[in-house]
């Protein structure tokens, strides 16, 4: 991934997390993002239009609940946060995708977006995504997070 693309993804993602989920993100190097848990969730979606590609975000299951709690303005142990964790996580992906595509292609570009799909992963799945060249890493309020973005013009 080119340095300017990486910088754009960092900036767009950090801004989206701050505005949507009131969570602060910082870029992280691969060597500090080894799996520390056995349960991860990955949300992915594809896009077509001015360019085609895929975007995904991978986090621990616990992080989904934190995202929901922040979006809803409740505590993480609130039943609503627990029930809406996956939906909130998918919304973060959806917003991030829209903002990344707008930043790259401009506001007039048209895209068709797929519905976000979620899958559960173990530590080996986390490592597989981490090792892709199109993946960048973050710490979001101290939670590790992976952002994969691949496109063809």
Please give a structural write-up:
It is a single chain. The chain has a single domain (3-152), classed as Chemotaxis protein chec. The protein contains five helices and seven strands, in the order αβββαααββαββ. The chain has helices at residues 3-21, 61-72, 79-83, 85-105, 123-130, and strands at residues 25-28, 40-49, 52-60, 111-113, 117-121, 135-140, 143-152. Strand 2 and strand 3 (52-60) form a beta hairpin. Helix 1 crosses helix 4 (85-105) and helix 2 (61-72) packs across helix 4. The radius of gyration is 15 Å and the shape is globular. It starts with a helix and ends with a strand. The model has no long low-confidence stretch (mean pLDDT 94).
Question: How far apart are the first and last residues' alpha carbons, in Å?
Answer: 14 Å
Structural class: alpha+beta
Specify the CATH homologous superfamily: CheC-like
CATH class: Alpha Beta
Task: Provide the succession of SSEs.
Answer: HEEEHHHEEHEE
> What global shape is seen?
globular
**Helix amount:** 40-55%
Uncertain parts:
none
What is the CATH architecture assignment?
Answer: 3-Layer(aba) Sandwich
Average of the residue pLDDT scores: 94
Task: Output the number of helix runs.
Answer: 5
Which fold name is given in CATH as the topology? Chemotaxis protein chec
Strand content: 25-35%
Largest sheet: 7 strands, antiparallel
Number of domains: 1
Rg, rounded, reads 15 Å
